[in-house]
């Protein structure tokens, strides 16, 4: 029994040891004197990058460039009045911005006003391109694709236009091709100013 009593007392004694912490004197509290408010630091702004100005787009008077060529093409001996012509989108090989859509539209307007040929309507051209799996913006780069489209549209002629050269020395070249034979009936060049 002595042993049991000794174990019980030692258990009570050991259980009470952790609860006895050494007493520390209280920390003196110093009164805080108000100071002027400090502004928070401003965030560091990233350096401002200068955005380069885009290249200046020069306006090209496509009517002045294209009209003489269409007049020259209109007097070609091999052309028959009233026949259908497909106007291919102008291809830009110059490396600069030439507003190719404006050039193509001007060619179509010039052919309609000067020549006795009839251009294929835009809606008919787009539906034929869709039927052949071509997007509206695709230029008919391969002559075989262009002739295939012209045959699908039952056109008699196709007109290709290409812009070559550098900024100050650009030239537009046009070729009129017969759809049935693939023969080049007319070609012409004019300087773009």
Task: For this entry, give a set of tags.
193 residues; alpha/beta; Rossmann fold; 5 helices; 6 strands; 17% strand; elongated
Secondary structure layout:
Blueprint: H1 2-16, H2 62-74, E1 84-87, E2 91-92, H3 100-114, E3 118-119, H4 122-131, H5 143-152, E4 157-164, E5 171-178, E6 184-191
Parallel strand pairs: 1-3, 1-4, 2-4
Antiparallel strand pairs: 4-5, 5-6
Helix pairs in contact: 2-3
Describe the structure.
The structure is a single chain. This protein is an alpha/beta fold and 193 residues long. It has a domain at 62-191: ABC-type transport auxiliary lipoprotein component (Rossmann fold), CATH 3.40.50.10610. Helices cover 33% and strands 17% of the residues. It is built from five helices and six strands. Strands 1, 2, 3, 4, 5 and 6 form a six-stranded mixed beta sheet that branches. Strand 4 (157-164) and strand 5 (171-178) form a beta hairpin. Helix 2 (62-74) crosses helix 3. It is elongated, with a radius of gyration of 43 Å. The mean pLDDT is 82. Residues 1-22 form the signal peptide.
């Amino acid at each position: 029994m002595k042993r049991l009593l000794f174990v019980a007392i030692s258990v009570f004694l050991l259980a009470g040891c952790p609860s006895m912490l050494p007493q520390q004197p209280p920390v003196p509290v110093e009164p805080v004197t108000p100071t002027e408010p400090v502004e928070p630091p401003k965030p560091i702004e990233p350096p401002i990058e200068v955005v380069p100005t885009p290249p200046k787009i020069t306006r090209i008077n496509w009517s002045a460039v294209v009209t003489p060529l269409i007049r020259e093409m209109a007097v070609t001996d091999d052309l028959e009045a009233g026949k259908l012509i497909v106007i291919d989108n102008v291809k830009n090989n110059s490396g600069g911005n030439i507003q190719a859509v404006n050039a193509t539209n001007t060619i179509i307007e010039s052919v309609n006003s000067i020549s006795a040929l009839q251009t294929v309507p835009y809606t008919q051209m787009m539906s034929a391109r869709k039927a052949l799996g071509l997007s509206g913006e695709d230029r008919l780069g391969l002559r075989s694709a262009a002739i295939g489209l012209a045959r699908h549209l039952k056109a008699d002629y196709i007109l290709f236009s290409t812009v070559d050269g550098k900024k100050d020395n650009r030239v537009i070249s046009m070729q009129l091709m017969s759809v049935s034979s693939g023969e080049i009936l007319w070609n012409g060049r004019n300087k773009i100013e």
